[in-house]
Amino acid sequence: MIFVFSRLFTTPVLWFLSWLNWTGITSSGTMLRTAEKRILSFLKTAYRGFYVDIGPVVGEADKIWTISLNSESPKTPLVMLHGMGAGVAFWVLNLDSLAVNRPVYAIDILGFGRSSRPTFTQDAVVAENQLVKSIEEWRREMNIQQMILLGHSMGGFLATSYTISYPDRVKHLILADPWGFQEKPKEIKAPLWIRAIGTMIAPLNPLWALRAAGPYGQWVVEKTRPDIIRKFTEVIEGDEENVNVVAQYIHQCNAQSPTGESAFHSMMHGFGWAKHPMLGRMHEVRHDKAITLLYGSRSWIDKSSWDLLKAARESNYVNVQVISGAGHHVFADKPELFNRFVNEACAFSDSDALTSNSPSATEPTDETTVDGEDINNGSGETNQPATNIVNDKNFVKTST
């Protein structure tokens, strides 16, 4: 019955949305660039923005938008992958702290933000491989030999997949409330009408409503997700224009051609799960790879699998930290604690602990809930300068 109902309504809805296409009318690369630049202007650390040409990974000439901080440091760089629908500016609460003692690179994943938006395959496995390959091509062009790889939500899923495919390039894997690890429950209890609506909109990309709203897209963000906007008020202060810039940034990230979102849609099995969940593949992560897992105590992500993850890797380093009071956007809900744990993971990676015989190097830590703040930093290794990059001189910010 639900299937018949969805077929009756899905086809005209898809036709209407294809006709009501505001892409290119209410969005532009210039508007996205302006919003990003305004958010990043609140950083205290100098940063540089540039495109990295990764060649024909998915499209004919794909480019990855990248920002770098403290790139002259010889220590192991931290590379940050955002979640679905986000971009590099989402890390504004974290970059200053994380770049104190090491290079930090944040990228717009291919198909998102200011990066190229090629058309991905609709096959879940191939789409995942395309995204992972784009990260590897970016790393190769940047001449980064090893990195500490951090991913949030969808970025955590891709970071893990990358670590499986290219283990020699990852020194430490940091997962921030990662998406796509758990199996989808066989039965989801919900009223019939909710299941009918869910089935009807299943063929649509997750953020279709934002684009369908056209010129009211920013208003939709402001009214439906004020919680996300409030997370950034600590750093983004001033007049109404500054306050609204986060909603503008989210709108502009997602009002353009949603090719990366379509790739995510191909990989997902219902919004909360992946067609090929990562938990069943964790045995493919090489045994010498340390993992730090950070998640919010109030997140909607199912946490039941973390115990299974620790059990599956009981002879390896797995550090699980629960950040009290934080939700899915753990990096923005409690930025001081998030930054502390990331810096500690980086310091651990810089040390010789992974190659020593000390218990701290081989035994997983206990899961803890923490509410304090601190910063811990270490030393690291040299990486060669980048090649094949296109500078955007307007995005060079000097320290104040």
Question: How does this structure look, described?
Answer:
This protein is of the alpha/beta class. Helices cover 38% and strands 14% of the residues. Strand 7 (290-296), helix 13 and strand 8 (318-323) form a beta-alpha-beta unit. It starts with a helix and ends in a 9-residue tail after the last strand.
Give a concise summary.
By secondary structure, this protein is an alpha/beta fold. The protein is built from 16 helices and ten strands.
Element layout with pairings:
Elements: H1 2-19, H2 29-40, E1 47-55, E2 62-69, E3 78-81, H3 95-98, E4 104-107, H4 124-142, E5 147-152, H5 154-165, E6 170-176, H6 192-201, H7 208-212, H8 217-224, H9 226-231, H10 240-243, H11 245-255, H12 259-267, E7 290-296, H13 305-312, E8 318-323, H14 330-333, H15 335-350, H16 359-362, E9 368-370, E10 389-391
Parallel strand pairs: 3-4, 3-5, 5-6, 6-7, 7-8, 8-9
Antiparallel strand pairs: 1-2, 1-10, 2-4
Helix pairs in contact: 1-6, 2-11, 4-5, 4-12, 8-11
Record keyword descriptors for this entry.
14% strand; alpha/beta; disordered N terminus; 16 helices; globular; 400 residues; 38% helix
Sum up the overall morphology in one term: globular
User: Measured on Cα atoms, how large is the radius of gyration?
Assistant: 21 Å
pLDDT below 50 for ≥5 consecutive residues: which ranges? 1-23, 193-198, 353-400
The helix content, as a percent range, equals 25-40%
**Beta-strand content:** 5-15%
Arithmetic mean pLDDT: 79
Global structural class: alpha/beta
Major sheet characteristics:
10 strands, mixed
Tally of DSSP helical segments: 16
Cross-sheet strand order for the largest sheet: 9-8-7-6-5-3-4-2-1-10
Distance between the termini: 63 Å
Oligomer: single chain
Order of helices and strands: HHEEEHEHEHEHHHHHHHEHEHHHEE
Number of strand elements:
10
